Amino acid sequence: MMLRKLRHALPWTAVDKPKSSKHHKADQTSSKLKPALFLSSFFALWFLLLYFRFDLLRPDTARRPPAATNLTLGVADDPPDGSACRSRAAVYVHSLPPRFNSDLLLRCRSLNMYTDMCPHVSNRGLGRPIPSVAGIGGGGGGSWFATNQFIAEMIFHARLENHPCRVRDPALANLFYVPFYAGLHVSSMFRERSLPARDALAVDLAEHVQSLPTWQRRGGHDHFLVLGRTAWDFLRLSNRGPDFGANSLLDLPAVRNMSVLTVERQPWTGSNQHGIPYPSYFHPATSAEMLAWHKHVSESDRPHLFSFIGGPRRGPGMAAIRDELIRQCNESARCELVVCKPASPAACHDPGRVLSIMAASRFCLQAPGDSFTRRSVFDAVLAGCVPVFFSPHTAYTQYRWYLPAEPREYSVFVDAGEGEEPLEVEIEKVLAEIPPEEVERMRRRVVELIPRITYAHPNATALGFRDAVDVAVDALLEHMGSKLEKT
Ligand SMILES: *[C@@H]1O[C@H](CO)[C@@H](O)[C@H](O)[C@H]1NC(C)=O
Ligand SMILES: *[C@@H]1O[C@H](CO)[C@@H](O)[C@H](O)[C@H]1NC(C)=O
Ligand SMILES: *[C@@H]1O[C@H](CO)[C@@H](O)[C@H](O)[C@H]1NC(C)=O
Ligand SMILES: *[C@@H]1O[C@H](CO)[C@@H](O)[C@H](O)[C@H]1NC(C)=O
Prior knowledge:
By secondary structure, this protein is of the alpha/beta class.
């Protein structure tokens, strides 16, 4: 599948970064640190951490092999069928006129100028079924699909329609979901030169939501949208960079009142935006399938110290770091490299191949590409591979609902600044110096994250674990509560 080319419009060079947010201040400080300085303080901290850990941990806990871990998925007190709502959330799914969702699917062949979207929108956005990976979750009702990376909005919709916390009476609801397939729509208009035409359906949506009786009660603050594409695609008015085809959905006053779940938030100004995982390929319907996969990746042999799967990018900024990662990986005997070329995209999008390389690697490099985030982060977590980040905006400022607050628990950070200077870090050396116990500890933490970053099969009735949608619904309610208290 082809990615849209944003080479001349990299958002982190185009955007105005306001100085007010405290996250931004932290980012600026970190970007000013030279990599060497950063790394030495990083290792100093690491040393301290290890020192205290060895003091505190009994050897048997530290050396416990991962296979012996009893994997409970946080469902011990579930009702036996797992089908009851285990949250205070009561979600009302608005039924929108079809022009906002299902009509878009009718023209899936021409929807996206680069790709025939028909296979990707099939099975409610899961895409085409694929053979089971590592023999897990196979058979007739398989749980593996060739899922498109930009399709979370459809999967979310399907899952919420069958969700145990869905209510049919708006009077009983505390969350209101507006199922607009905004990502599918915006990508069908990237080449539209007329700005009013490009914005028309978004403006229409904003007018429509304000006419809903449920809107008036809280000015839309309890309504939410889910976007399968990055926030940058919907911020044309506030993002004063070159035009790369975005519309202005997220700049509209009504939408600014809503909560917006997106695979990539605008890290500086996106205060109503919340990061949700990119969908990977695994959509299990039972905790037995999840546990089998858990066990597979926990026990997997990992002969490669690290791996990189990705394509080169041309142009300035962070994308240039990819060339450096490809060079270093190619030159290292301990790195497994898969270079994605436009001529042979299959190499990088064969789920079985991608996951088996990641499941055979201890670390997976996550370079920013056309934007800060990558679907590959979630493929790596699914494969139990510790992610290595080069920008805080690839995950740390994005997925607060999903990932541990402390980055060192589950990842390695190599500071690449803002990409304006060449990366001087020797990645193999950095990774090889991390003590094996630390690697093991991080990997256990990564494997624990798998259920919550997974989009379960939307037809699952007795799931038995909390998936990405469950986490989002709970976090939204909590967020909404604190937001409404303030107003
Ligand atoms: C895991 O824990 C559950 C619940 O405590 C228990 O029933 C089960 O036997 C344990 N499994 C293993 C392999 O220890
Ligand atoms: C869910 O079940 C319905 C009814 O059996 C079926 O028609 C539909 O294809 C299923 N959805 C998915 C995504 O498999
Ligand atoms: C947005 O919310 C505020 C209250 O916080 C309300 O006054 C305003 O009317 C809302 N805007 C729209 C477009 O509904
Ligand atoms: C990897 O290195 C070899 C030997 O220097 C070179 O021929 C090859 O083109 C490199 N591959 C990539 C993808 O850079």
